[in-house]
Amino acid sequence: MIMPVVDIKAVSFSYPQSQKVFEDVNLSILKGDFLALIGPNGGGKTTLLKLMLGLLKPDQGIIRVLDNEPDHAGPNLGYVPQFASHIQDFPITVRQLVAQGRLNCGAHNFWLTPTDKIQIQQALVATGTDDLAERSLAQLSGGQKQRVLIARALAAEPQILLLDEPTAHLDTSSGLKIFDLLAKLNQQTTMIVVSHDLEVVSRYANKVVCVDHCLNWQPLKKMTNNPDARHR
Question: What's the predicted TM-score (pTM) here?
């Protein structure tokens, strides 16, 4: 039996003084999956991502990530938050931002080991941002910023990469390039992506789940894990 890398069983969750977001949710994610979470705004997609990351705790049920409590799995998770625009005013270079991804790996105050420097460079190369390494963040386009945030997450050598609306505020061409990158990275890393665009994610994901509060919690699409069989 294949053990899931994320296992969600009978999970319910509510915010304080709010209606229930989820009730009795079950979901298994396997190593190598490219899972897309779709659904309407306010349906709970980001909340589910935060539960997997251990940033929120379920009211009921069990969540296991890499056979650990979510908050103990953190060093093996890479997280790319929504809205790359929030890094616009940071007075640091691309390389310095990507170096932040090594903080969970023992690096402190940017005293980087040779191993840290190798992983940072590999993350830059993998995301096609190595030629931007010495630029300031303010000089980057929206698509470049998103690639840099992905590089920061990759620098931690995650087993699972979780992304919240990675193509928000990007034009169609830039958004497709980001998904092309994620598909390539999926060859080595399990991918969990929040998106609102079913048409786009259906070209890339091997599993798509609709998140709409307590409704429609079921896989909408299962495809082969063979990348050659996906429509990209």
Answer: 0.87
